Amino acid sequence: MAGYGWWPVLWTLVLLSVVLIVGYAIHTHGRPPATEQSQADTALSTLRSRYARGEISEEEFEERRRRLEE
Questions:
Q1: DSSP string covering 13-55
Q2: How far apart are CA 25 and CA 16, in angstroms?
Q3: 0.85 exceeded by the pTM?
Q4: Structural domain boundaries in the chain
């Protein structure tokens, strides 16, 4: 490293930072925020309860479930 100084270390850190930022963005992209996810879970739970009580048919349950999971 005597001839190059700190440049290789600096560029390694920059490259690593870019890889981590891109990886984080890819990981979180498309995932709904926590509040939207909890609302969907609550709606799905209510839908399951209504189906279990016989308030809605199996076809209606499946149709609504598909819409909620979109």
A1: HHHHHHHHHHHHHHHHTTPPPHHHHHHHHHHHHHHHHHHHTTS
A2: 14
A3: no
A4: 36-70
Determine the Cα–Cα distance for residues 66 and 10; give it in Å rounded to an integer: 49
50-64: pLDDT as tens digits: 999 999 999 999 999
Instruction: For residues 15 and 21, give the distance between their C-alpha atoms in angstroms, rounded to a whole number.
Output: 10
Task: Give the alpha-carbon dihedral of 5, 11, 14, 17, to 10 degrees.
Answer: -110
Contact 19, 27 (CB under 8 A): no
Distance of CA 13 to the CA centre of its chain: 28
How far is the CA of 25 from the CAs of 19, 22, 38, in angstroms? 10, 5, 22
